[in-house]
Design brief:
By secondary structure, the chain is mostly helical. It has helices spanning about 1-20, 25-50, 55-75, 90-115, 120-140, 145-170, 180-200, 210-220, 225-240, 250-275.
Length: about 280
C-alpha cells in the first residue's frame, strides 16, 4: 500500500517537476484545488495588512508575474543547476514567487506606515528591478536574439486585443470596460499568441492537459484563440455577476490568478523564442 502510494506520488507529482514534463490530469486538478484554497488564506493576510486588491494592486503585482515567467526561462536555459532549479519549475515556482512577493509586500506596507509612502511604489519597483535582472542575465547567456519574433508576437497580441475591444464596444458589451477585466483578457490573448506561434513555427510542445487535447483534436495550435475567449470572457462575466457581493479582495485575487496563469506562460514562451532557448 505504502509502495503504491509512493509510486503514485512520484509518477504524478514529483517526476513532472524533476523532469519538467508538464502537467497530467491528476496534478492539474490537485494544483487547481490548492490554488483555490490558498486564495482564502491570502485574503485574510491582505485584510490584516489593510491592503485592497484593486486595480492599483493588480498593476503593482504584475512585475512579479514577469519575474515568474522569466525565471522559468532561466531554468530552461540551464543557468541554475539541481536541486535549486526545481524551485523554478511549476508549481514550486509559484510558491517561491508567492513567498518572496508577500515578504516584499509586508516590507512595503511597513514603509508606508513608517514614512507615509504609498506601498505600491516600493512594491512594484522591487518587482521591476528583479525582472530587469532576470532579463539581463538571460540576454548575457542567450545563444541569439530575434527582435523580429518579439515584435511579431507583441504586435499580433495587441492587434487582436484591440479587435476584441472594438467588437465588444460595437455590441455594447460592458464587461471589458473594466480595466482589470481587460488586462486579464490581454494576458490570455498574449498567451494564445505565444503558444500558437511557438507550436506552429518552432519546435515547442504544449504541456497543459486541455490545450494539448484540443490542439491534437483540431490539428492546429491556433485553436488557443477561441479557447481563451470562450473560457476567459464567461468566467469574468460570472465573477462580476455572481461574486460581486463577496469580499472585494477575494474577487480581485481570483482575477489575478486568472491573469497569472495566462500572462506568466506567455512571457516565458515569448522570451524563449526571442532568445533562442
Amino acid at each position: 500500500m505504502a509502495v503504491d502510494l509512493g509510486n503514485f506520488i512520484n509518477e504524478y507529482y514529483i517526476n513532472p517537476i524533476i523532469h519538467d514534463t508538464g502537467y497530467n490530469p491528476i496534478n492539474t486538478i490537485t494544483w487547481a484545488i490548492i490554488l483555490g484554497l490558498s486564495l482564502f488564506g491570502v485574503v485574510k493576510l491582505l485584510d490584516k495588512l489593510d491592503v485592497t486588491v484593486d486595480e492599483v494592486f493588480i498593476f503593482a503585482v504584475s512585475p512579479y508575474i514577469f519575474v515568474g515567467g522569466s525565471l522559468r526561462v532561466v531554468e530552461d536555459a540551464g543557468i541554475v543547476a539541481a536541486p535549486f532549479k526545481y524551485l523554478l519549475i511549476t508549481p514550486l515556482i509559484y510558491l517561491f514567487i508567492f513567498f518572496v512577493c508577500v515578504a516584499v509586500l509586508m516590507l512595503s506596507v511597513g514603509l508606508q506606515r513608517a514614512i507615509h509612502i504609498n506601498y505600491y511604489w516600493p512594491f512594484a519597483t522591487a518587482g521591476v528591478a528583479w525582472s530587469a535582472l532576470n532579463v539581463w542575465l538571460l540576454y548575457q547567456t542567450a545563444p541569439s536574439f530575434n527582435a523580429g519574433i518579439l515584435a511579431l508576437i507583441l504586435s499580433v497580441a495587441v492587434a487582436l486585443s484591440f479587435a476584441v475591444y472594438a467588437i465588444a464596444r460595437l455590441l455594447n458589451f460592458t464587461l471589458l470596460k473594466d480595466r482589470v477585466n481587460a488586462f486579464v483578457l490581454d494576458g490570455q490573448l498574449f498567451d494564445a499568441t505565444a503558444t500558437s506561434f511557438g507550436l506552429t513555427f518552432l519546435p515547442y510542445a504544449e504541456k497543459h492537459v486541455l490545450p494539448n487535447f484540443l490542439i491534437e483534436a483540431t490539428g492546429t495550435a491556433f485553436v488557443m484563440y477561441p479557447l481563451k475567449l470562450m473560457v476567459t470572457v464567461p468566467v469574468l462575466f460570472i465573477i462580476d455577476q455572481y461574486l460581486k457581493t463577496e469580499s472585494k479582495n477575494l474577487v480581485g485575487l481570483v482575477k489575478l490568478a486568472i491573469l497569472t496563469v495566462g500572462l506568466a506562460p506567455a512571457i516565458r514562451d515569448t522570451l524563449r523564442m526571442t532568445l533562442g532557448i
